[in-house]
């Protein structure tokens, strides 16, 4: 399993102890496991059943298979209607139509920790489709439009866990 993102690890202490956190598009659950080990109650969601099944039964994690890109936003449905989180973690995932709804999942004083690929990554491999690559400063514009306050922002080249162009933001709902 890939090690947790240094960006996520660095901003993890911003989450209130024991808080309820959403790991969106969690994949293999590297961040869900990190959060649960730190004492948080984690809702880990992904559309990949195999990935989610590996998280079933892990203490502190409620794993759910959900389609985040369908016509219906699963967090508006009967299981999550009106639900908010003290933190939302997103890494290596971008579906622009849902960015405002992702930000809306935060409680007052909730923390968004988001990190994914940006334009320029096509030189290093996948993703290379512009639909899945952030434009320079794009996360800043998204959080501003959602009424969140920026805590930290980075963009550019990284070599962990592989050479890539990435963009990352940590923001809070005040």
List keywords for this structure.
single chain; 174 residues; alpha/beta; Rossmann fold
Q: What does this molecule look like?
A:
The protein is of the alpha/beta class and 174 residues long. It has one domain: 3-Layer(aba) Sandwich (Rossmann fold), CATH 3.40.50. 19% of the residues lie in helices and 31% in strands. The protein has a seven-stranded mixed beta sheet, sandwiched between helices. Strand 4 (85-91), helix 4 (99-104) and strand 5 (106-117) form a beta-alpha-beta unit.
Summarize the SSE layout with pairings:
Layout lengths: L5 H6 L8 E5 L5 H8 L3 E6 L2 H5 L7 E5 L19 E7 L7 H6 L1 E12 L20 H8 L3 E10 L5 E9 L2
Parallel strand pairs: 1-2, 1-4, 2-3, 4-5
Antiparallel strand pairs: 5-7, 6-7
Using the CA coordinates, give the radius of gyration: 15 Å
Number of domains: 1
**Cα-to-Cα separation, first versus last residue:** 35 Å
Coarse structural class:
alpha/beta
CATH class: Alpha Beta
Shape: globular
Largest sheet: 7 strands, mixed
Give unreliable regions as ranges: none
Mean pLDDT: 94
State the order of secondary-structure elements, H for helix, E for strand: HEHEHEEHEHEE
Helix content bin: 10-25%
CATH names the topology as Rossmann fold
CATH architecture call: 3-Layer(aba) Sandwich
Q: How many E strands?
A: 7
Q: DSSP strand (E) fraction?
A: 25-35%
CATH-assigned homologous superfamily: Vaccinia Virus protein VP39
């Amino acid at each position: 399993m890939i090690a947790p993102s240094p960006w996520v690890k660095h901003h993890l202490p911003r989450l209130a102890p024991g808080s309820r956190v959403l790991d969106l598009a969690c994949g293999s659950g590297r961040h869900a496991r990190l959060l649960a080990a730190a004492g948080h109650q984690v809702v880990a969601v992904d559309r990949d059943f195999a990935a989610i099944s590996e998280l079933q039964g892990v203490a502190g994690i409620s794993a759910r298979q959900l389609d985040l890109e369908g016509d219906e936003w699963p967090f508006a449905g009967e299981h999550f209607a009106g639900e908010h989180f003290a933190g939302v973690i997103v890494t290596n995932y971008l579906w622009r139509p849902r960015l405002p709804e992702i930000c809306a999942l935060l409680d007052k004083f909730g923390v968004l920790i988001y990190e994914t690929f940006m334009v320029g990554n096509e030189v290093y491999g996948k993703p290379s489709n512009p639909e899945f690559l952030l434009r320079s400063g794009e996360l800043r514009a998204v959080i501003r439009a959602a009424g969140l306050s920026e805590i930290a922002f980075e963009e550019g080249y990284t070599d962990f866990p592989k050479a890539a162009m990435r963009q990352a933001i940590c923001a809070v709902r005040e």
